[in-house]
Write a structure and sequence with these properties.
The complex is a heterodimer. By secondary structure, chain A is mainly alpha-helical. In chain A, helix 8 packs parallel to helix 13. The radius of gyration of chain A is 24 Å and the shape is elongated. By secondary structure, chain B is an alpha/beta fold. Chain B has a domain of 147 residues: P-loop containing nucleotide triphosphate hydrolases (Rossmann fold, 3-Layer(aba) Sandwich). Chain B is built from nine helices and nine strands. A six-stranded mixed beta sheet of chain B has the order 5-6-7-3-8-9, with helices on both faces. The longest helix of chain B is centred in the last third of the chain and has 17 residues. The chains are: A mainly alpha, B alpha/beta. At the A-B interface, helix 1, strand 1, helix 3 and helix 6 of A face helix 1, strand 1, strand 2, helix 3 and strand 4 of B. Chain B: Pfam families: ABC_tran.
């Protein structure tokens, strides 16, 4: 039954073919799965998410002689640079007890949040090849990016504990508060990464802007200085400016981590309702980001 | 017409394409995009970039594929063969028309999931997971994949990073990983040309095997002989239009007559 077909001009969906498809249980190709189905698919790919994250983490420094040690050395060098500039040159340490633990906690936590968002922006776009070749829930990509950074964070948290002990902090029960803080942070970062991944996949130019946005966010989140101390001199007269700075999610998570780990960083330095705030930000970003990312599932890697 | 013939017979359809049009946009087409000021004025005037071009790659293709068929897609370069496969896989949206499929049609290819800095061993696991295999399945098939690729015939190459492989070895391992999974509908895009003669024979046999397990195999190839040998049906696309659909011998003859005449 050789058929030579002329070019068709009016391709209205044929009811006959649709019936045939339905009769044999064929489904429309490339349609977006429902949300529960999507979650199930993502769960089935959980090993891929973690394997991809670990693989990328191991591939990062594979050509360097020191290899994986750089995961530890890089944040420490970062902390040393910030300590030199802000601690010694600009004297941001004035009025901040335990400035070194204060600074490194801030930097390590910010490093995780900032790089999650930065890497999330590129998560889908830089994996276009993978997206175009294989069928899998695209949320795996930003999530595995955050999983990779979270693994790195756990390494640096280990170093942080050693440093804290070296700078005279005593282990206390409050250190266990770091665990829920880490989890909430991870959910928040994953949510942001998914939001940025969708934006970045549509307009790749955004990834050029992210370093500036993130730097502004970092400087206003009190990573290397205490927001309280800086604004005490009231050149920012409004109380709500201070409040706004302290309620921003990065500052909330950084302060919670400091509260957990540093003796002299007491509850008075925390914004009011800090735990509901931390949970709220995590849920808002995590759930909202996931649903928003899913809404464009069938469009990734196209155009 | 093909569709009226298929509705009366008892064969089980696996892929139904109904008047499929695929149009995609290409950024960065055209020789120049203009300077920075031109780009800025575009942003403000919201005019589309002159570098943006629409390509109408597939124009109204209708066919029904059945279980147990191996279908070769032939046509000259840029006739929309690969685009049609991507659309069937659900990786490229159709502008008009519909594609129905049984299960999840998959393109044979895991290249993008593999990492050159990791060992072949790790890449087998990573590629398998990317294709949706379970850890258990990968453990069971691991040895089979390595043996099939023939990577370890000379030395223990599988424990070396993939960047140390020759291009032929890399291609062989990639094909072996990709072919390790059973698919409902499998689509192969020019994958048979890799490796030496022995490997090509092995991959031909593997495709035969996949076709028995999978319901349907689509094969895009420029080699008319490969299509003749491997496929029982062929679809000829020319400039995005389906020109001919039928037994592969007939379609291949017609195609060869067409190309010889040009």
């Amino acid at each position: 039954m050789t058929t030579a077909t002329a070019p068709k001009t009016a391709p209205a969906p044929s009811a006959e073919l649709a019936q045939l498809a339905a009769a044999h249980g064929l489904t429309l190709s490339g349609a977006r799965p429902t949300l529960p189905r999507y979650i199930a698919e993502l769960w089935n790919r959980r090993h891929f998410v973690t394997a991809y994250a670990t693989a990328r983490m191991q591939a990062t420094y594979s050509s360097a002689k020191l290899g994986q040690l750089w995961h530890l050395v890089t944040p420490l060098l970062n902390a040393a640079v910030y300590y030199f500039i802000f601690g010694i040159v600009m004297k941001a340490s004035n009025g901040v007890p335990d400035y070194v633990p204060f600074l490194i906690t801030g930097i390590f936590v910010w490093d995780f949040i900032g790089s999650s968002i930065n890497a999330g922006t590129r998560a889908v776009h830089s994996n276009r090849g993978l997206v175009r070749a294989l069928h899998f829930p695209r949320a795996s990509l930003p999530i595995s990016t955050v999983v990779q950074l979270f693994q790195q964070l756990l390494v640096t948290m280990g170093a942080l504990v050693v440093l804290l002990l070296a700078f005279g902090q005593r282990p206390a029960w409050s250190w266990f508060l770091a665990v829920p803080t880490l989890l909430l942070m991870a959910v928040f970062a994953a949510g942001c990464a998914m939001v940025m991944a969708r934006i970045g996949s549509k307009s790749p130019d955004v990834s050029q802007l992210m370093p500036f946005v993130l730097r502004t966010w970092m400087y206003s989140s009190g990573v290397m200085w205490s927001i309280d101390q800086m604004l005490k001199s009231d050149h920012l007269p409004h109380h709500w400016v201070l409040m706004l700075l302290k309620l921003n999610p990065a500052a909330v998570y950084i302060d919670l981590m400091r509260f957990a780990l540093i003796d002299s960083f007491g509850a008075h330095s925390l914004p009011p309702h800090v735990w509901p705030l931390a949970i709220g930000w995590a849920l808002l970003a995590g759930v909202g980001g996931f649903i928003w990312f899913w809404k464009a599932e069938e469009e990734y890697g196209r155009g | 017409m093909a569709d009226t013939a298929t509705t009366t017979d008892t064969r089980v359809p696996t892929v139904i394409a109904d008047g499929v049009h695929v149009i995609y946009k290409v950024h960065g087409a055209g020789a120049r995009k203009g300077g920075a000021t031109a780009a800025l004025s575009r942003v403000f005037s919201r005019r589309p970039s002159p570098g943006m071009k629409e390509v109408h790659a597939v124009k109204g293709v209708t066919f029904t594929a059945h279980k147990g068929e191996a279908i070769g897609l032939i046509g000259s370069n840029g006739s929309g063969k690969s685009t049609l496969l991507a659309a069937i896989a659900g990786l490229q949206p159709v502008a008009r028309g519909r594609i129905y499929s049984h299960g999840q049609p998959s393109l044979l290819g895991v290249n993008a999931a593999l990492m050159n800095d990791l060992t072949g061993e790790r890449n087998v696991v990573l590629g398998g997971l990317a294709m949706g295999m379970s850890k258990q399945q990968i453990r069971e098939r691991y040895q089979g994949i390595v043996d099939f690729s023939g990577i370890n015939e000379k030395d223990d190459f599988i424990s070396l990073p993939m960047r140390t492989y020759s291009s032929g070895m890399g291609a062989r391992l990639r094909f072996s990983i990709a072919a390790a999974k059973d698919h409902d509908v499998l689509m192969i895009d020019e994958a048979l040309a890799t490796g030496d003669a022995a490997f090509q024979r092995r991959s031909q046999a593997r495709i035969e095997e996949l076709r028995e397990h999978a319901g349907t195999v689509f094969l895009v190839s420029h080699s008319i002989n490969t299509v003749r040998e491997t496929c029982d049906r062929a679809i000829w696309l020319e400039a995005g239009v389906l020109r001919m659909d039928g037994p592969s011998a007939e379609v291949c003859d017609a195609y060869e007559a067409f190309t010889a005449g040009r």
